[in-house]
Amino acid sequence: MLTTRQNSLYNLSLLSERSEKSTLSLKNSPTLSRPWVGTSSSSASKDAEGQKLYHLVKPTEHGPSENQEKMVTEIYLTRLLMMKGTLQKFINDLLEAIFSTSSRSAPLPAAIKYMFDFMDEQALEHGITDAEVVHAWKSNALPLRFWVNLIKNPHFVFDIQKPTKVEGCLSVVAQTLMDACSTQDHQLTKDSPSSKLLFAKDMYQYRDWVDSYYSDIARLPPISDQDMASLLNEESRVHRGQFHVFSALNELYKYLDQYKEPIMDALEHNEHAQASRLPGRLQVMKVFIYI
């Protein structure tokens, strides 16, 4: 037989005692006992009474303060300096191998000597006497175009993975090489990028290496046009099966079609081009292409 559940007096008295204890604990709370007021009045009363008001967490935990940022920056720079000291020898060996003609296991590539001599000849032909201009030509042609790209992307040459954590380190090394090729002295301050501050003391040595590299190449025996042509023919023969000739010709044609007028004008005013009858041969080639 089912009957209606009776409320126990014991349970009711127990709940009453718990309620009274909860009320008593809330009354004793140091924060809940204060009446809530607006933001402006709260700040004024806090200053007046000299009390600190917390809401669950301390104000410093809501975001980094100036002291915290300074502490994190100092720790970060200390770790950077330690890592730089660990890798200094390897970075020096890399830059010395790039900007050296005597410490190489193989002789300097003839193409580099031929290209740098060509730039020197062009500077003389056009009356450019500023050495920094020729320096910029050579830097843009080889170190900044080739080596910087290779340092930042080693997977272009080697079958390796490039972790994300390593990208920043490689970018710092590449930036150091770029600064070494520059002829301008940048005034560094405490707000300058850390990548420039790390190698500020070593930059003069690196720039001496770059200047010596260009000077040593200029003193090497010149490469004749016949020797360069033979070298290119040999390279073409060795790598004949690795390249598609018509694709390369198509890319050259796109460049020729875009700058056909300046190219033709330059050929007509160049004595070597006139001797080889290049303007007429270019005209004949354009006729066949358009047909």
Automatic annotation (TrEMBL):
Q: Which residues form the Plexin cytoplasmic RasGAP domain?
A: 22-263
Q: Which InterPro entries match?
A: Plexin (IPR031148), Plexin_cytoplasmic_RasGAP_dom (IPR013548), Rho_GTPase_activation_prot (IPR008936)
Which segments carry the region annotation Disordered? 23-50
Species: Cylicostephanus goldi
Domain of life, per the record?
Eukaryota
Where is this chain compositionally biased, Polar residues type?
Answer: 23-45
The name on file for this protein is: Plexin cytoplasmic RasGAP domain-containing protein
Q: Name one GO molecular function term.
A: semaphorin receptor activity
Q: What Gene Ontology cellular-component terms does the record carry? A: plasma membrane; semaphorin receptor complex
User: What taxonomic ancestry is recorded?
Assistant: Eukaryota, Metazoa, Ecdysozoa, Nematoda, Chromadorea
Q: Which PANTHER family match?
A: PLEXIN (PTHR22625), PLEXIN A, ISOFORM A (PTHR22625:SF70)
Q: Which GO terms describe its biological process?
A: regulation of cell migration
**Per its UniProt record, what Pfam families does this chain match?**
Plexin_cytopl
